[in-house]
Amino acid sequence: MSTIDTDYVILVDENDNEISSDEKLSAHENALLHRAFSVFIFRKNSENQLELLIQQRQAQKYHCGGLWTNTCCSHPRPGEATSAAAERRLFEEMGITQALTPVGHFIYKAEFSNGLTEFEYDHVLIAEFRPQEFTVNPLEVDNYQWITIPKLILALETSPEHYTPWFKPALDIALAQVK
């Protein structure tokens, strides 16, 4: 079972200036703005259609368990560069070793039924998939799939309840860089 532990997150202001750090659970209980990242790994399929690797979050996650989202998402640790943290977590969650390119950021706030709130300054990073074998971490990911962009956009429009609240705004930033 994946639980929230004593990891720390970086608290920031609306311009991503570091203020301090706090325990991850406390930041989510108190709706404190903190630094995060969302990773998007794209590829072209055999029909030359753009696809995105998405994951279904492990059902026991502290929030949004069982929902589909981008390839990888998490928080850098205090003192850790966002790009380095994103590459580390991409390997820890998805088993993929890949250099990433930062392409934008946004702030969002989402309250959950369990009393936690995500309030994040979310950095968006992308990459074209470098073919490799990979094995996902079952403590982080229940399932994954490659999905074409038109199919994904339709699913987000018709069944938004199956996706994390940050996925669509982060996807919009990522897609602006790959189309």
UniProtKB/TrEMBL annotation:
The gene is idi. It is found in: Cytoplasm. Its EC number is 5.3.3.2. One of its GO terms (biological process) is dimethylallyl diphosphate biosynthetic process. InterPro entries: Idi_bact (IPR056375), IsopentenylPP_isomerase_typ1 (IPR011876), NUDIX_hydrolase-like_dom_sf (IPR015797), NUDIX_hydrolase_dom (IPR000086). GO terms for cellular component: cytoplasm. Mn(2+) binds at residues 28, 34, 75, 118, 120. The active site is at 73, 120. Catalyzes the 1,3-allylic rearrangement of the homoallylic substrate isopentenyl (IPP) to its highly electrophilic allylic isomer, dimethylallyl diphosphate (DMAPP). PROSITE patterns: NUDIX. This is Isopentenyl-diphosphate Delta-isomerase. Binds 1 Mn(2+) ion per subunit. Binds 1 Mg(2+) ion per subunit. The magnesium ion binds only when substrate is bound. GO terms for molecular function: isopentenyl-diphosphate delta-isomerase activity; metal ion binding. Mg(2+) binds at residue 93. The lineage of its organism: Bacteria, Pseudomonadati, Pseudomonadota, Gammaproteobacteria, Thiotrichales. Its cofactor is Mn(2+); Mg(2+). Belongs to the IPP isomerase type 1 family.
